Amino acid sequence: MNGSVRLELELPERVRVRLEELRAMNGADSLTEVVRRALAAYDVLLTAARERGDKIVLRSHDGTEREVFIP
Predict the structure, then answer these.
(1) Is the Cα torsion angle 7, 8, 11, 13 positive or negative in sign?
(2) Cys staple from 15: which of 2, 11, 37, 57, with CB 3.0 to 4.6 Å?
(3) Where are the beta strands (DSSP E) in the chain?
């Protein structure tokens, strides 16, 4: 075995469609790659917000900012 674990997920159709859209947007080779990247991003955000107490802020092109809550 190569250190991988196979998971079977039951997702609503709208979530699968969104995963496909995200795959196309970022050029990922597979839905697995989209999920892997999403988990990596979530890990970074959650660690910053919960463990370090950092704030996650989105800044739009016009300079307006909004804080994002990470549940």
Answers:
(1) positive
(2) 11
(3) 56-59, 65-68
37 neighbors 27 (Cβ within 8 angstroms)? no
What is the 8-class DSSP label of residue 7? -
Per-residue pLDDT tens over the stretch 13-42 = 999 999 999 999 999 999 999 999 999 999
Q: Is 67 helix (H, G, I), strand (E, B) or coil?
A: strand
Q: Structural domain boundaries of the chain? A: 13-68
- Give dist(CA 58, CA 4) in Å, integer: 34
Contacts of 71 (CB under 8 A, 6+ apart): none
3 state SS of 23: helix
Residue 24, classed as helix, strand or coil, is helix
Q: Is the pTM of this model over 0.85?
A: no
d(CA 39, CA 32): 11
